[in-house]
Design a protein that fits this description.
Length: 370
């Protein structure tokens, strides 16, 4: 007699994996695209409390500004690479059905003689319209992206955004803002650096500057200097000379109550080197605080490695090694002028600022600590 087949035989097993995540409501999504001198980067997110939750992202090294320093124009090859990257962004926007977005271009497009033709090419080939923003808006967006990292103990704040083609510095006085409200006061700068005090004590922007030197343009300025150490020193002092018109340049700043927030690939790479990370980990880097002495130690190690050592260092990476010393020269100049015990590392920037600005303007962020 054949054995009796169990009643449950052949039944579908209960799934052990979690079900697919629920797709976010397209009406709640926002997008931000930042096209810089080196990179094309995009975030798609929806508001979540006083912050936002990222549902998709994109980042590509397109080197849009390659050759710009010598020719004053965007090359055909660099425009082609960039358009291909933006096509991918368009596909992501379509997939998520995003309707609220801000797509901006910065220094390379501000400087290039043929930027209007490039913007038109992007529109024709991708259907997306890029907005070339002014340096003040770029600086403002960098500032508000860093609001969550502002300490309630900070009285004087310097936000530094080291880009590929330019570097923005914003000095903010928070002494008249109550301590618990200081991060929130930074967020309110999304509407402009000059504010009516209104019902809230305002953060005072003492001065801001956009230096037309970033990691790519500063490197290109001294590409003909063969000595590695000498080139680094020249880049650092050359950058410092460009800060002479920045109001805080002439005054000495005490360390107590002073915070620098640095947002750039240079700063996050230095932080990863300081931590000895073999693989980059944003959760360990974003918000990390370093002292001037710790930063100097990392930069000194970069110099002693030489070009071959930096290329082989996994914490720097092959994409970053060609630009790390010009970025480090900028960072060293800042540490020389304003030494600090609290330099906060921000793995965030223009994209996050664009998202915060859009969401704040629409009133969809809850009233949190920032």
């Amino acid at each position: 007699m054949a054995p009796r087949r169990p009643d449950s035989a052949g039944a579908f097993p209960k799934p052990v994996e979690s079900p697919a995540p629920k797709q976010p409501d397209p009406n709640a999504l926002y997008a931000a695209l930042d096209l810089g001198t080196n990179s094309c980067r995009m975030l798609i997110a929806h508001p979540k409390g006083s912050q936002f939750h990222v549902v998709d992202s994109f980042s590509k090294n397109v080197q849009l500004g390659s050759g710009l320093e010598n020719s004053g124009r965007l090359s055909r090859a660099s425009m082609g690479r960039t358009v291909n990257a933006i096509r991918i962004c368009r596909q992501k926007l379509n997939r998520h059905k995003v309707s609220r977005m801000r797509l901006v271009a910065t220094e390379a497009c501000r400087r290039a003689a043929n930027s209007a033709q490039f913007i038109d090419q992007v529109r024709r080939e991708t259907g997306l319209m890029l907005d070339i923003i002014e340096p003040e808006e770029e600086a403002r967006l960098a500032v508000i992206s860093c609001a969550p990292l502002v300490s309630t103990k900070t009285e004087q704040l310097l936000v530094v955004d080291i880009g590929g083609g330019s570097t923005e510095l914003v000095w903010i006085d928070l002494t008249k803002v109550p301590k618990p409200d200081r991060p929130r006061a930074i967020m309110r700068l999304h509407s402009g650096f000059r504010q009516d005090t209104g019902p809230f004590p305002a953060a005072k922007v003492v001065d801001w500057i956009s230096v037309p030197l970033g990691v790519a343009t500063l490197r290109d300025q001294f590409a003909d200097v063969e000595d590695d150490t000498g080139r680094f020193a020249l880049m650092s002092w050359f950058f410092e000379e460009k800060l002479a018109d920045f109001a805080p340049y002439a005054s000495e700043q005490v360390r107590e109550g002073f915070q620098i927030i640095g947002t750039s690939g240079t700063v996050t790479t230095v932080a990863a080197s300081h931590l000895g990370l073999r693989r980059y980990d944003r959760t360990k880097v974003d918000g990390l605080r370093m002292t001037s002495d710790q930063i100097d130690t990392v930069i000194s190690n970069y110099i002693s490695m030489g070009p071959a050592g930096r290329r082989a260092d996994p914490r720097i990476g092959r994409d970053r090694q060609a630009l790390i010393m010009s970025g480090a020269a900028i960072l060293q100049a800042l540490m020389r002028l304003w030494p600090t015990d609290r330099m906060s590392v921000a793995d965030r920037g223009l994209r996050e600022g664009l998202l915060y600005a859009q969401m704040s303007a629409d009133g969809v962020l809850e009233d949190g600590p920032y």
